[in-house]
Design a protein that fits this description.
Elements (H helix, E strand, L loop, with lengths): L1 E6 L3 H10 L6 E4 L16 E2 L10 H20 L3 E2 L3 E5 L2 H17 L5 E4 H7 L9 E5 L3 E3 L1 H14 L3 E3 L6 E5 L2 E5 L4 E9 L5 H6 L8 E11 L10 E4 L9 E4 L5 E4 L3 E2 L10 H14 L8 E12 L5 E6 L2 E5 L5 H18 L25 H10 L6 E3 L4 E2 H8 L8 H8 L12 H12 L26
Parallel strand pairs: 1-2, 1-12, 2-9, 5-14, 12-20
Antiparallel strand pairs: 3-8, 4-8, 5-7, 6-7, 10-11, 11-12, 13-16, 13-17, 13-18, 15-16, 19-20, 21-22
Length: 478
Amino acid sequence: MYDVAIIGAGVVGGMIARELSRYNLRTVILEKENDVAMGATKANSAIVHAGFDAKVGSLKAKLNVKGSEMMEQVAKELGVKYKRNGSLVIGFSDEDLETIKELYERGTKNGVRDLAILDREQLREIEPNIGKKATCALHAPTGAIICPYELTVASIGNAMDNGAELITSFEVTSINRENGAYEICSKDQTVSARYVVNAAGVYSDAVAKMVGDDTFTVHPRRGEYILLDKECGTLVSHTIFRTPSKMGKGILVSPTVDGNLITGPTSVDMEDKTDKSTTAEGFAHVIKETAENVEGVPFGKTITSFCGLRAVGSTGDFIITSPLKGFVNAAGIESPGLSSAPAIAEYIVDILHESGLELHKNKDFNPTRRPMHHFREASIEEKNAIIAKDKSFGKIVCRCETVTEGEILEAIRTNPKPRDLDGVKRRTRSQMGRCQGGFCSPRIVELLSRELGIKYEEVTKFGGESVINFGKTKGGKG
C-alpha cells in the first residue's frame, strides 16, 4: 500500500513526486509510456514565463509568478541548465501597443518584477536583429529558459533517490475505491494507494472520469516547432514573443539553454490525443511569422522539427481540484505549466495535507543531484582526472554533441534509468546534433543491449513497437 500514487511522469508529476519525497511517505509514479517526460514535457517551448500574461487572480497567475521565482534554485539543486535571459513581447501597431500596456498592468498586478515598455529604438538596442516592422515591446527581465525534459528526469531521479518509486508502461484502465484506499489498475497490474494525484496531461479528464468526475474536459492543442543548429543560437539573446491571442502567445524565437535556436509553436486545436504529426502548412506559418519577428533566421540550418500537444482544459485556468477525499486533479496544465511546476507541487502537497495526509520530514532528504552534463562542462584537468579513473569517459560516441561512452553508461545506470534510444538522448544529448543520431545510434544500441541484458534487436527507439533493428547483416559484437 502506497501513501500517494501520482499518475503521469511529466514535469508536474515529477515535481510533485520530488516535493513528496521530502517526507516519510511511500510514493509511486505511474507512467503509461516507456520513460518519463514523454508527453507535453518533451515537446514545448522550454520557457520559464515571467507571469504577465495570465488573468489576475487566476491559479495560472499565482502559480506562474511563484514558480518562476522558485525555478532558479530548483534548477541549481537538481543540476539542470537554466538561464534568465529575459523575454520580449513585440508589437507592430498602435493596437499591439495597447495590448502591451494591458500586459504591463496585468503583470504588475500579478507581482512580476521589473517590467518595462520599450520603444523601437530601445528594442533595437537590446535586440539588433529584431524585425524591421516591430515598433514596441514589453520587456520582462525575469523570463528564463530551461530544458523541460532534463528538469523532469532530474526531479524524478531526485525523488527516486529519496525513496519514491517509478513504474513505467503502466497505462491506467480503471480506478476503484475500496476500504478508504484507491485501487489503480492497468491491463496487468494493480497498485493501491491512500491518495492519488491525477497529473495525466491530455488524458487527465479520462482519468478523472474513472472516479466519477466529469466536471471538465481536456483537449490537445497542436504546436509545431523548428529547431536550428547551434551556429544560429546567438541570433537573439531574449525570448521573442508576439502579442498574444486567444490561441496563445504566437510564434516565438528563442535561444535554448543548449545553444540552439528554437522557433514555434503553431496553435491548432485537435481531437486526436495521439496525433503528433508535423505539417507543411504548420512549418510555413512558423517560417512566415519568424521572419516578421526576427531578421535573417537561416532555416537552411534546421536540424530537426517536431510537434507537441498541449493539454488545454475547458475552464481557461489550471484545474487543481479534489472531487473525492484523497483524489486530486492537476489537469489542464498548459502554458505556463512548466514555469508553474515547482509552485504547483507545493500547492498540491498542501491540498493532500489538508485532506489528511500526514507529513513527517524525511531527515535523510537530499535536494541535490549531480548534473547530467557534469563531464561536458568540466575543465580539461577535471576531465583528465575523470578519464584516469574511468577510461570510458575518454571515448567519444556522439561526435556532434561530444558525448562520451562514460556519460551514456552513467545515464543508463542513473535513476530514472532509460531503456531506449530516445531515453538516452534526453539525458545526454547524444543524437541531438546535426546528424540526428546517424553515426552514434548503433553504438548506443550496443551499450543499451549490454547494460540492460537484452538482445541487440530488442532495443527500441522509444518503447512499444518502435523497433530499430530486425537482425544483423554482418558478424560481430552486439
